[in-house]
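This part of the workshop introduces the protein records we will be handling. A record pairs a protein's sequence with a compact description of its fold. Comparing a sequence with its tokens is the quickest way to learn the format. To make this concrete, we reproduce a full record directly below:
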Amino acid sequence: MRYTKEHKSKTRERVLEAAGRQIRQCGVQGIALNGVMAAAGLTHGSFYAHFASKDDFLAEAVEQMFLDSPVSILRGDGKSAESALGEFVDYYLSPEHRDTRVSGCPLPFLAADAPRLNENLRQRLSKGVAGMAALIAGHLSHVSHRGKGSVGEFASSVVSEIVGVIILARVESDGIRSDVLLKSSRDQIRNRLGLSN
């Protein structure tokens, strides 16, 4: 049976979303193609109908993880710059985002593994970081932020800080201290971005 391009595209997206969930849970090294394909409702044999190689598949999965992450909030959908930035920071530095193991930004999950990833995967992560910073920078030109240096440098600093905060909030074993870290960082970043608290 021949499938339409739309059907094949939706099936491919389902596989990439399943891969993203498994990467978040097990890391890139722990991904099992059989498990990913089964989670997408497909057989292992159909993998090569959608992807040229496992490396290509993993790189595309990382890109899909960024598309399915809180970064999508920054795309705005008609919201003001202040609203998009505020919603992004509030969700990114929330207990919900800290606690998820099947969704969320790929950076806190993969940053520590980056030196062990192949060049293609590292480039996809780097592209995701640059994309996030560019979206933040685009909004910064519409708010009265308190950043130093260029808008791009400030946006990159914000990305570095929020990713680091989530990583440390996940490390903190005391839930109350972790919540305090998230809240205080969220308030500080909102203040520097010129957002009302």
